Amino acid sequence: MKQEEATGEKIISQINGPVTTIILNRPEYRNALDQDGSEQLKKHLQEFENNSTQKVAVLTGSGGYFCAGADLKETSKRVDYKAWAGHPDGPLHKPLSKPVIAAVAGHAVAGGLGIALYCDIRIAEEDAIFGVFCRRWGVPMSDGTPTRLPRIIGRGPAMDMMLSGEPVTATRAMEIGLVTRITPKGGAREAAEKLALQIAAYPPIAMLSDRDAIYSQDGITEAEALAEEWRSAQEAQAKEAQVGAARFAEGHGRHGSFE
User: CB count, 10 Å around CB of 32?
Assistant: First the structure.
């Protein structure tokens, strides 16, 4: 276990330049979150959201695990468990205004799958496992999974995962679009942080407006989505596009270079 992960805190945030890495830190429970942990997660996400110097977050887990979901031992003893997504005060209720990348090691199952789905991009290690494992215990997915999973991978694969509860390997997750990048074991966090730094270096207005356009097109017609895409692009067009085009004309970033 890394030194910074041996603090006793259920959630840890680390800042590296414009990137915040948020770490779920209950490895003895495979990073399952109790109510206190979920409230701490909300606090750390909001601190990232409200910090204007921070551009991209990485969400990961300690001890070689991502998250095994809600702490069912606690759930079995309380009826007032706060739904992570459906409840207005849940940590996954509302997407942030800035990108979040999931770095998945080990299991991202039950509520852990919901946490991964909350992120914009999911990077998984080659032995990572996804699944609705709480299907066996009669615990509903009130973490955003029933809403977000079909929007990401389509209704058919989502229904298979939701009803069967069977494990989904990293390779299968890549095939159905649940993850977009796979790393060797132990490499997800480093890959996610590298990508986060790359994204954070881009002109922010255009990047965020394009991100917003992707989210806003859900559930509206193509004509409405194109109108929203155009509307979202206006600020970037006025403030960034001409400057960026001038840099290209000067020879920067040609031939596919992202340096």
Answer: 24
Q: Write down the pLDDT at residue 78.
A: 62
Positions of the chain with pLDDT under 70: 1-7, 75-81, 236-259
Q: Examine the domain organization and report whether 119 and 139 are in the same domain.
A: yes
Q: Are residues 141 and 159 both part of a single domain? A: yes
| H or E, element range at 22 | strand 19-24
Q: Which residues partner with 183 through β-bridges?
A: 125
> Is the dihedral angle over the CA atoms 148, 199, 195, 230 positive or is it negative?
positive
| Locus of tokens 């020879």 | 251
Q: How, if at all, do strands 121-125 and 129-131 pair?
A: unpaired
Mean pLDDT (the chain, rounded):
87
What 3-state DSSP class applies to 146? helix
Residue 49 lies in a domain: yes
pTM (predicted TM-score): 0.86
pLDDT in tens, 72-103: 777 656 656 677 787 888 889 889 999 999 99
Do 101 and 181 lie in one domain? The reply is: yes
91 within a domain of the structure (yes/no): yes
Q: How far is CA 249 from CA 205, 236, 238, 239, in A?
A: 20, 18, 18, 17
Asked whether residue 259 is assigned to any structural domain, the reply reads no
The token pair that represents 163 in the structure block: 């009803």
What domain range is 239 assigned to?
204-249
β-partners of residue 16 are 19
Identity of residue 149: L
C-alpha distances (whole Å) from 44 to each of 13, 24, 64, 67 are 7, 10, 21, 16
Q: What are the C-alpha distances in Å from 56 to residues 59, 65, 109?
A: 10, 21, 24
